Amino acid sequence: MMPAPTLTTDRLVLRQIRADDAEALFPVLSDPEVMTWWSSGPHQSLTETAEYVASNATEGQGFECWAITAADDVALGWVILIDGKPAVKEIGYILHRDQWRGGIAREAVARVIDYGFTELELRRIFADTDPENAGSIGLLERLGFQREGHLRGEWETHMGVRDSLIFGLLQSEWRTAP
């Protein structure tokens, strides 16, 4: 698998995440509020973040991972497309808390969705989120995702066993420039 192609929006450059993004992403991955709904708890050290980011930056693992950057090329978070069935991928995202509620997550995620449906010719993109993660649920709904399922006791996380909501979006439902 090749590196994720660089994608742009009016304000953002989405580029392949790199191991050297760890320092910029440590404040994100060590923030207890940001990491509340993540699959693992807040990182305790830059070394932990460096290992985690390096594993996400490795090519050929069945996903594409973009660093969300502005003009300064500093990673503010990321968007990931994870391989599933043929023509189906899961989307995930994380963003520095200082950037919340500014439309950056929506802009970045929308651009990756557009890439998935137009360039990769996916038929479906889905997301898996905690039922209490109101921010993520709101983002998905604003982008046109529909709630498709509630999986009880799905994930074992740093907060204990958690349920999961599955949201899906079909290519035929996607509108460009949401």
CATH superfamily: Gcn5-related N-acetyltransferase (GNAT)
Largest sheet: 8 strands, mixed
Please state how the strands of the largest beta sheet are arranged side by side.
1-2-3-4-5-6-8-7
Mean pLDDT: 91
Low-confidence stretches: none
Q: How many strands appear in the DSSP assignment?
A: 8
Order of helices and strands: EEHHEEEHEHEE
Q: Output the radius of gyration.
A: 15 Å
As for the number of domains, it is 1
CATH topology: Aminopeptidase
CATH class: Alpha Beta
Helix-strand makeup class: alpha+beta
CATH architecture field? 3-Layer(aba) Sandwich
Overview of this structure, please?
This protein has an 8-stranded mixed sheet, sandwiched between helices. Helices cover about 25% and strands about 35% of the residues. It has one domain: Aminopeptidase (3-Layer(aba) Sandwich). The two termini are about 30 Å apart. The chain has helices spanning about 20-30, 45-55, 105-120, 135-140; strands at about 5-10, 15, 65-70, 75-85, 90-95, 125-130, 145-155, 160-170. The longest helix is centred in the middle third of the chain and has 15 residues, at about 105-120.
Question: What is the topological layout?
Answer:
Layout: E1 7-8, E2 13-16, H1 22-29, H2 46-57, E3 63-69, E4 75-83, E5 88-95, H3 104-118, E6 124-129, H4 134-142, E7 146-157, E8 160-170
Parallel strand pairs: 5-6
Antiparallel strand pairs: 1-2, 2-3, 3-4, 4-5, 6-8, 7-8
Helix pairs in contact: 1-2
Pfam family, one: Acetyltransf_3
Organism: Sphingopyxis witflariensis
Protein name: GNAT family N-acetyltransferase
